[in-house]
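Justification of computing resources. Each target in the renewal requires a structure prediction run like the one illustrated here; the chain below, 271 residues long, is used simply to show the kind of job we budget for.
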Amino acid sequence: MSRQRSSLNFVPKVVIWGVIVYLIVTRANHRHQQFRQIRQAISAATEAAAPRHAPAPGPARAFNNRLWYGKDTDKDIDPILTRRNFLVVLDGSGSMADSQCSGNLSKIAAAKQAIAAFSNKLKPDDNLGLCAFDSRGVTERSPLSLNRAAFGKALQEVRSDSNTPLGHAVTLGYSLLQKQARHQLGYGEYYLIVVTDGEADRGDDPRDIVNRVVGESPVVISTIGFCIGQGHSLNRPGLTLYHDATNLKELNDGLESVLAESDFSASADMR
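Resulting structure tokens:
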């Protein structure tokens, strides 16, 4: 009799746990279905609003891989899917300590001044991040975010005491933009801005990664060549934007041209 009563007590527990598991699975499936419906609705709206005319001229505006950023995620989706993202790659090579083309300032100091001014011209909901290479290596210094104070602090800490691993730096910057794109489901705008005063180290040519970025993604690569002329490996007409800067004003103008490209693209899409 006792064994029978124990069996009867066990049955409700099994039923209760079964119901709990069913509810958890059902809720998860429902959330996934909602996510898919949202994504489909966004895709439909985007296609319906797409301009019927040819796309605006400019580098890196067309791409052949919808999932250039990797696998979709349903975690930590950015509430602003159309957010603009600006990732700055700053050259911390030893030659940036020179004062050529920058008056009484070192080139690294002039670059920091211009980049800081650029950061103040962004919209409040624009993401801004920083990568750099110096004696601490090729690393992310400030993640893409709205935190301008953290960006400014990281910017000032960049040194001018290394070689010029441009290929690795562009690759890192692209990977960080891809990471952010997963949170925006691939929507939005993505700009990789390189500020440099020299050619890449031997074996670290950035042209291969540039070809990949331009071929598979909407990322716009913009390079400000500081006191190095037009003959730089990142000056790729039709693929990248390039601005030759021989003084601080032209350095500022080069960074502002990135915003002009973004504004032009936005106005072209609205027509």
